Amino acid sequence: MTECGQPAPDFTLPRDGGDTVTLSALRPAPVVLYFYPKDDTPGCTKEAIAFTEILAEFNSEGAHVFGVSKDPVTKHEKFRDKHSLSVPLLSDADDTVCEAYGVWVEKNMYGRKYMGIERATFLIDGAGNIARIWRKVKVPGHAEAVLDAVRAL
Questions:
Q1: Phi/psi at 104 (nearest 5 deg)?
Q2: Active site residue 44
């Protein structure tokens, strides 16, 4: 499991729009990675919209923001277009990045156990280390709290 102060696990993932994103190539800018369970579900939609609404403020702080889920790029693009999202969405289809960040976990819904993505956010500083972790995120006010943490770097 990843912890604050550790180097952030590096990765290269495909994103909506056809490009790829390599975490280490973004240094020395801070990076926000928010992991979410599934495109176009109520909580995930609210979270993506919240980050989109203040993305310009993250950008003015020099920070990059990315949403990460297992959904394929084509689904990300439909989700992005349907809700006018501007936050880039990364596809971790084989869940290697989710595993590396410790967000691929056993969940329990109505007594049924299954594996899924825990809603979590990681703030990575300009040196590539994990500066802050939010686990089991509650969406209201979360994007603003992450922005405050970016400003405090």
A1: -90, 100
A2: yes
